[in-house]
Each structure stands twice: as structure tokens, then as C-alpha cells.
Amino acid sequence: MVEVDRPGKKVLLVLTSYSKVNWQVNATPSTLIAGILVGGYEEPTLTTSSPTQGYLVKLPSAYEADNSNFKELLGKLNTWFGTRKVDAFRGSYSIPERIRLSSVDTSSAELTLDGPLPVKPRKNFNFRVLTNGFEKTELYLTGPAPGPAKSYLAEGKVAVSPSGKAIYSLKSTGIEVSEQSGRTSTLMKLPADFPAFSWEMDLAYDTKRDIVSVITNGGEGFLYRFDAKAKKWLDYRSLKRLDLFSLAYDATEDRYVAWTTAGRLQFLTADGQPLHSRELISRLVGFGRLYDRGNRRPPRVTIAANGNDIAIVFVSDNSIQNIWYYDAKSDSAMLTFRNENR
User: Fold this and answer.
1) Measured CA distances, 191 to 5, 204, 210, 280 (Å)
2) Most CB atoms within 10 A, among 9, 14, 187, 292?
3) How many Å apart are CA 158 and CA 214, to the nearest integer?
């Protein structure tokens, strides 16, 4: 039962669900229901006390605002009616028996098509990420440096030597070492007594020791180390079911910083010993709009770490889409860049 009590107001009511719902809508006599849109994965039904006709439409089930489904829903409302925000949102995983709408919600960026806006960081700093041409390029917390647009590497699985001359690409059986010129390449296969890669995820270059470390998922997961100078595999370590998605080396603290498949920052020693982790995904403003939480795992991000200053970068369609700043000292996070052309 949805009860609408908005005297003197015109209301567009949008009802969505995943499972089939028999919606019943009652409006007070002085409330004008301008339209009722009903959508769901399983076709719903509608009965209403209002003379307004209900329309069965194709809409995603959006039970939370910080979710890609909610963003998609607002996009469709914008296309149909020019709507850029909703005035009231009542979402939950399980629909209560009675929902009453008698007031609008407090103004919130989450309820708008644009979503949360970035804020100016207290301090800005530059860091480097890889392009699709395997070249290091500078970014700032506030976005790419001025200049021609670049095509950025989204998947990871590539590391470059400090000189930029050697490229290390992650393959299913080892690391392919090639020159930036592309003239030569060599596949450095895992030794026979090493566990085979399950799901190879990412690798990072330890600039202090000239070691390339590889992380894999599946089963218990492993961290492997490869000596870039001697061109030989050194060792491997079980991650004990710690599922890591992306990896970065932090030269300032001489450690690795990883992004887990659960959306945590995981810190590791230079030889791969797990240290501590930080729950972060719930504090990255606007991150939930990147995926359908509950049905998909969080998307991969690129990490750039310099001591307590850590940048979290989301790359999609070869473009920098979002940058968040995490201050490990104060344990705080903020959205500092969002691509306005997305």
C-alpha cells in the first residue's frame, strides 16, 4: 500500500521492484497524481483510488540511491520528462506493507541526476598513471593536467620500469618483458615448482629493489615476486584467500597498497606480508553509482600511493572518470574529481 498525501501538489509516482508486486496506491482527495509509472523485472500489477492511468514501463529496480540502477532510472526520467531530480525516495531491499508519502526529502545530491559533486582537496598533489601506450603520465587530485586528451589504461596488469624502457605485462603463464620500442619481448614463465596462476589480477614495480610483484585470485591466491634485474622468479607467498584486485607500490613507506574485491584498501609489506586494511568503499562519495551493488562486485580502481596520501582512480572508456583522495593519517576520504563529460 502506497499512501500519497501531498495537498495541492502534482505528483509523478514511480514504482519499481525486482520481484512481482501488486501495487495499491491511495491518494488523498486534494492530492493530484499526475502519473504513475510502474516497472519491474517481473511484471507488476496496479490498483489505485486515483483516476490517473498507470503506465507499465521498463525501469530498473532501484532500492538504493547510491547505485547504478538509480542513476539509470533518473536518466530515463530525464529523457522522458526532463526530470533531473526526485523529491522523495523510499527504497529498501524488502518493501514494507505500508509506505506513506506526505513530505519531500531534504535536498540531497544523491537524489539528482548529476549526483554528488567533487570538493576541492585541502592539498593537491601529482601522481602518475599509465596510458594505453604504456607511458607514465601525470594526474592531479583535481584531474588530468591541461593538454591533449589521453587514453588511459583501465585493466591494469602492466607495470613499467623507472626508466620507462621496460614494460612488464601480466600473462596467464608468467610475465612478458618487452621494450618500450616494441622490438623485443620475452615471456618469463613461472618455474615448474611454483603454483600456476589462477586468475591473474595485477602487478606492481618495487622501485627500491627492482622487483615486480604479481597478485592472483582464485583458491587461496598468491603474491609472486620477479627480480627485474636478474630476470628470474624469486618466490611466492599465499595470500590466504585475501582477494586483491589491483596493486601499487608505495616507495615512501616501502610497502604495497592494494584494492580488494570487497572494496577495502589492503596494506602489505614489501615482501607481501599482509598488514592492516581499511574499509573504504562506503566512504567514497558517489562510488556506488558505478555498479549495481549486491549483484556485481565493486569495479577495479587504480591506486597511486605516496605515504599517507593515496589517490584512488576509476578509469572507464579509456578516460579518467573519478578520483578520490584518501588520507591514511586522518582516515578520511573525499571525491576530488569527476568527469563532467561522462
Assistant:
1) 71, 20, 19, 36
2) 14
3) 10
Boundary residue ending a domain (78, 110, 142)? 110
Cβ neighbours for 6, distance < 8 A, ≥ 6 positions apart = 28, 31, 101, 102
Residue 120 located in a structural domain: no
Q: Select from 323, 300, 305, 325 the least CA-distant residue to 313.
A: 323
Domain boundary among 61, 76, 110: 110
- pTM score, two decimals? 0.91
pLDDT at 40 over 90: no
The sheet carrying 199-206 orders its strands as 199-206, 211-217, 222-227, 232-238
Assigned domain for 116 exists: no
pLDDT, tens only, 197-219 = 999 999 999 999 999 999 999 88
Domain that holds residue 100: 2-110
Same domain, yes or no, for 292 and 217? yes
Run of H or E including 67: none
CA angle 340, 327, 260 (to 5 degrees): 80
The answer on 299 and 236 residing in a single domain is yes
The grid coordinates listed for 315 are 578509469
Identify whether residues 106 and 131 lie together within a single domain.
Answer: no
Residue 114 grid coordinates: 548529476
Plot region of 34 (φ>0 → left; ψ -120 to 50 → alpha; else → beta): alpha
The number of folded domains in the chain is: 2
Query: Residue 62 to residues 89, 92, 195: CA-CA distances in angstroms?
Result: 10, 9, 43
Q: Is residue 118 part of a domain?
A: no
Query: Does residue 119 belong to any structural domain of this protein?
Result: no
